[in-house]
Amino acid sequence: MPSLPPVKKFTTGDGVRIYRIACHVFDYLTARVYLLLGAGPPTLVDTGSGQGESTAQILAGLDTVRTEFDENVRPADIRRILITHGHVDHVGGLWDLLGHTNAEVLIHPLDRRAITAHKERSVVGKRRMHDFLKRAGVECDRIEQLAGTIRYERIQRPRATLCMAIKDGLQLDGLRFIHTPGHAPGHVCTIVGDVLLCGDHLLARTIPQQWPESLIPSTGLAHYLESLEKVRRIDGLVLALAAHETVIDDVYGRIDTISASQQRRTDRVLRTVRNIARPLTICEIARMLYEQVDGFHAVLAICDVGARVEYLHQRGHLIVDNLDQVASQENPVCCYCVAQRAET
Fold first, then answer.
1. Which of 1, 66, 148, 181 has the greatest number of CB atoms lying within 10 Å of its CB?
2. How confident is the model at residue 152 (pLDDT cuts 50, 70, 90)?
């Protein structure tokens, strides 16, 4: 398990103190939550996964803020918890932290069911993933195994009270919220003076994961690229603090890099389809582009390719059809979602 970076303080141009607290959210992944002081009541941005030592590490980080940075704030003083989006590594620790704080919860309406109907959302998500993998051309005997690699918690959690629904452009105590769908339907970035709290919308090293809109409404590459441009139009940002990885010092340069990478990946999908004489399933395209991946990473690859096939189809570059096929021992595929070059 990777070691955690220490708590770090950032100060915006207008004097808001932002403390970065790291935690392990999964065995292979660390995340950052942020404590905001000086912008209304003490506010925590994201909550970790609630798995393993995640919550204990956040609480220890809050204690460090008090003892080493001389901030007179304890968990019970936190009055707001802002959820950037409804993925489990950002919202899973909410219920634990509500037991230590007196916080209201802020989340965008498109992700609100992550906290108001957690079990139902998990069940629906798993079924949609199963159906998408089937349409993508995954062999019937592998669908359940691949779908099982996605972390859909079916734990019955108490219903969290939604105290405030974040809307695009909402301003609150010097914070401005920007709805940035794509990576998640209700993903929100927060402008704090000259600093952007960007969740998973921008990452310093990684290109954020894309999901097909047919799998999760209000995701999809088109939404993500539009949200990138939305952030690009915000003037005066000196750095971005993401939920994973390191600080982004050149916000606009990073947007350019991510946009170019997204275009290259989309072009690779289009070239792959155009270079093969027959129609290809999304699964086949993913195997051609990501030869060594399996399990969870295979699901991510298939979803990424599916998002790009949708995007290209929407723009008239590919023809996509659903063709039922009877499974056979030699080719046990239940359903094809096939892509082929559009005539131009």
1. 181
2. low
State the DSSP string of 290-301.
Answer: -TT--HHHHHHH
Query: Residue 130's closest CA among 117, 115, 144, 113?
Result: 144
> In sequence order, what are the residues at sequence separation of 6 or more whose Cβ sits closer than 8 angstroms to the Cβ of residue 232?
252, 255
Do 104 and 49 belong to one domain?
A: yes
Does 262 fall in a domain? Answer: no
194-236 pLDDT, tens digit per residue, is 999 999 999 999 999 999 998 999 999 999 999 999 999 999 9
Residue 261 and residue 254: Cα distance in Å, rounded?
A: 11
DSSP states of 253-295? HHHHHHHHHHHHHHHHHHHHHHHSSS-EEHHHHHHHH-TT--H
Continuous H helices in 136-203: 140-147
pTM of structure: 0.91
Is residue 164 domain-shared with residue 280, that is, in the same domain?
Answer: no
- 218 and 111 in one domain? yes
Same domain, 174 and 60: yes
